[in-house]
Amino acid sequence: MKALKTAMAIALMAPTPMLAATSADIKATGSVATFCNISNQGGPIAMSPTAIGDKLSGAGSYSYVANGNSRIVLSALQLSAPNGAAAAIPSIELADLVTNTSGSATASSPESLGVIRKEGSIATAITQNNSTRLLTAGDYAIEATATCTSL
Amino acid sequence: MGRAILLLLAALWSGHANAQTAFLDKREFSAKSGLVRVKLGVTHERQGAVELTVRLKGAGKDDQTPGPILTESVSIVPRAFKIPPNKLRKVLISFEPKVTTRTPYFACVVYQPPVERMDRDGRAGGSMLLATESCSRFWVMP
Fold first, then answer.
1. Which of A65, A151, B61, B125 holds its CA 20 to 30 A away from the CA of A74?
2. Strands B125-141 and B28-30
3. What pLDDT is stored for residue B46 in this prediction?
4. Interface touch B134/A36, C-beta < 8 Å
């Protein structure tokens, strides 16, 4: 009994080594899943004729966020125009990021090479290349997809 | 459950305005068993519930660019769904790749904004509709 009391007293008087032994077992780890996103702030962008009348133009804004290496690809631009309209060139520019003026090819931004948080303007236009430099009257539309890829 | 909450918090803290986001924890998968199962977390921050579509893509012009949408022997559950803002939806992509080398694939979630009729007061005009897509690249080993 005396020996048990002695052992308990030693344990209570010297707790530090016991706690030190458990602290060595604490291990903190964590991980963050990579992601990226691109958004067109404000939805569809309206385009109106310029003063000269040879072009439709509109403006919006984008937001691009990624927590690792990523890039943006703008799809080929799908243009719809009134029946009988002269050929036209669509364009979408995400400022300081990527521009596409093609109806058949994609356009890519450079890789971000790390985290990125960027906001900028979107400029969009439809320009007709007829000899009179006048847009044919009617409704026009451009459809495209902006894809961010987390690499 | 804990990981799902962490992913959702990461999305909220990222400060993006309203884009959809696809989270992929694991970046490398083995095709030894014949079937690859990829778990994806999807969320967004738009003002109301929106319809999102998930798709699997192969590589495009290089191993950094998503290419064609793959549908053959591909199961995506759920493939399309309506989701309120700041909720995390888990998606399972299963497919049977026939690869002989380390091959890139892309898990993507796309938001297609609804077409809005714009009032032009009788004048000529136009609109630009930009769909946005978030992809995460992963690799499949033979």
1. B125
2. parallel
3. 81
4. yes
